[in-house]
Write a structure and sequence with these properties.
It is built from five helices and eight strands. It is of the alpha+beta class and about 170 residues long.
């Protein structure tokens, strides 16, 4: 990524503040199809995609639910900076990727050394998370409406039953 200012997390920081903060970040290269974060695992770092693309997904039994694909300048794993909860989703490299990683200990150091920079970073992070919640709400509403149509409308219900019918054992 030639222009770090494309990363929304840094939008309220001056170029000098970004440079000061990035000293605390590390870089990591991952090959295509590498699982970077595993749902349910513990973690203490977040990531910014410097180059490449990643997929964020959930696994429920044999079903993989793709939540989103993140391009260059996107970030993931941010909950690890704020909570000690397990990872909420898995993330896999869709292409070869170069990532910036930021550990919770380094974030705590920034809070202690420069609360103003930490506050600007957290404001940008909060805005991004609010936008993700809005998208999730829209997706949830759409799923609810489809489900309601299946329940309320006999034609939809019959179509659903027909398309999800188990194969008969008689051949």
């Amino acid at each position: 990524m030639k222009d770090i200012s494309k990363v929304s997390l840094f939008k309220y920081l001056t170029p000098q503040e970004v440079d000061w903060m990035l000293i605390k970040w590390k870089t990591r290269t991952v090959a295509e199809n590498t699982i970077i974060v595993k749902e349910g695992s513990s973690g203490d770092e977040m990531y910014v995609v410097e180059s490449g693309r990643v997929e964020v997904y959930l696994t429920r039994g044999d079903v993989v639910l793709l939540l989103t694909e993140l391009p260059e300048a996107s970030f993931f794993g941010e909950m690890a900076l704020i909570t000690d909860k397990p990872r909420s989703a898995s993330v896999k490299a869709k292409t070869d990727c170069r990532l910036f990683t930021f550990e919770k200990d380094e974030f705590q150091t920034i809070i202690a050394e420069n609360p103003k920079v930490a506050a600007k970073f957290l404001l940008a992070l909060s805005e991004a998370l609010c936008n993700r919640i809005l998208v999730a709400n829209t997706n949830l509403e759409n799923h609810f409406l489809v489900n309601q149509a299946i329940v309320d409308n006999e034609s939809f219900r019959n179509l659903y039953i027909l398309t999800h019918k188990a194969p008969s054992s008689s051949g």
